[in-house]
UniProtKB/TrEMBL annotation:
Membrane topology of this protein: Peripheral membrane protein
PROSITE patterns in the record: ABC_TRANSPORTER_2
Coiled coil: none
Protein name per UniProt: ATP-binding cassette domain-containing protein
Sample GO molecular function, one term: ATP binding
Subcellular location: Cell membrane
Pfam family, one: ABC_tran
Length: 344
């Protein structure tokens, strides 16, 4: 019996556009010209409150009855001694690790083998006299200044060998503000959010939240160049927080800020830390640091002379008394009797 031949299958020409539709382009994002390649790939989509650190499952072997139980691991220890940094997965409670950090300017050693471990969810204060190396240390942490030695890791990512990942997790308020002051406050916040990869709707919502929190609602339509020093500091801090980073690096965040605004900023930072974010700040205000910080390090002449919890560092006195003691004590003014004879 002859089986009839099957008709050939129909061939359909599918246009290439149907198989690979073009990607919609965002004219707002296209208009931004970003010269710094470090931030090209920063795509952060997270709520304003910093997310809690990632958890991991550890399988433990059953304890052997013949052996004495070991001591439970304690929280991250803050130490000034040089040590080998732990692997990324060894301690999930450490968000920022500085190991044996060194920076020289000619014959001057600005940072002298500094090692610190910053626990997640804490507010960590760095205090010291002028020229002690605080700003130099924070500039190296944020990638603005290359160290001569040592390593810096943010959530296990090295700031210099893996800068995109490390900087994605940071919000920075530098000591010397360099803002686009010919933008309005609203435009500056919008630019900061878009630069970090947020969509326009999210940026507008978060800008409104931050403006309300910092008392800048009536100033968003004004040029930043017309802001007071305190308002400039607040809009810069808002720009550092808009992408909800895991780590905030703040150099003198309360300088030139009035007491009411300082109280609002303090509450914002405390709520941020309670939600799992981490704050590292430098300040000359001993009372403020003692009041809001969980941990503190006293830096003198580029070296960490004391570090740990606030109670460990200040001892039975105040932080200011401990700071003055380590910084060399109070200086007695002599030979200035002429100052007591007033001129007419």
């Amino acid at each position: 019996m002859t089986v009839p031949a099957q008709p050939p299958a129909a061939v359909v020409d599918t246009p290439a556009e149907a198989l690979d539709p073009p990607i919609a382009e965002d004219p707002v994002v296209e208009a931004l010209v970003i010269e710094d390649a470090v931030v090209d790939d920063l795509v952060v989509e997270a709520p304003l409150v910093a997310p809690a650190p990632a958890t991991r499952t550890v399988t433990r072997k059953p304890a052997t009855p013949a052996k004495a139980p070991t001591q439970a691991p304690t929280k991250a220890t803050i130490t000034t001694a040089a040590r080998t940094p732990a692997p990324e997965s060894a301690d999930a409670d450490v968000v920022l690790e500085l190991h044996d950090l060194v920076k020289r300017f000619g014959d001057t050693v600005a940072v002298d083998h500094v090692s610190l471990s910053i626990p997640t969810g804490s507010i960590f204060g760095i205090v010291g006299p002028n020229g002690a190396g605080k700003t130099t240390t924070l500039s190296m942490v944020t990638g603005l200044l290359r160290p001569d030695g040592g390593t810096i890791a943010v959530h296990g990512a090295d700031v210099w060998s893996d800068p995109i990942v490390a900087k994605r997790n940071m919000g920075v308020l530098p000591d010397r503000l360099r803002l686009f002051d010919r933008l309005t406050g609203g435009q500056l916040l919008y630019y900061a959010g878009i630069l970090r990869g947020l969509d326009p709707q999210t940026v507008k919502k978060r800008s409104a939240d931050l403006a309300s929190a910092f008392g800048l609602e009536d100033a968003l339509d004004r040029l930043v160049a017309d802001y007071s020093a305190g308002m400039t500091k607040k809009v810069a801090l808002a720009s550092a927080m808009i992408h909800s980073p895991r780590l905030l690096i703040l150099d003198e965040p309360f300088e030139s800020v009035d007491p009411v605004s300082a109280a609002n900023v303090t509450e914002i930072l405390q709520n941020y830390a309670a939600a799992g974010g981490t704050v590292v700040l430098s300040s000359h205000s001993m009372d403020l640091v003692q009041r809001i910080c969980d941990y503190v390090a006293i830096v003198v002449s580029g070296s960490v002379l004391a570090s740990g919890t606030m109670d460990e560092v200040r001892g039975i006195g105040s932080l200011e008394e401990r700071f003055v003691e380590l910084a060399g004590g109070r200086k007695t003014a002599e030979g200035m009797e002429w100052l007591h004879s007033f001129s007419d």
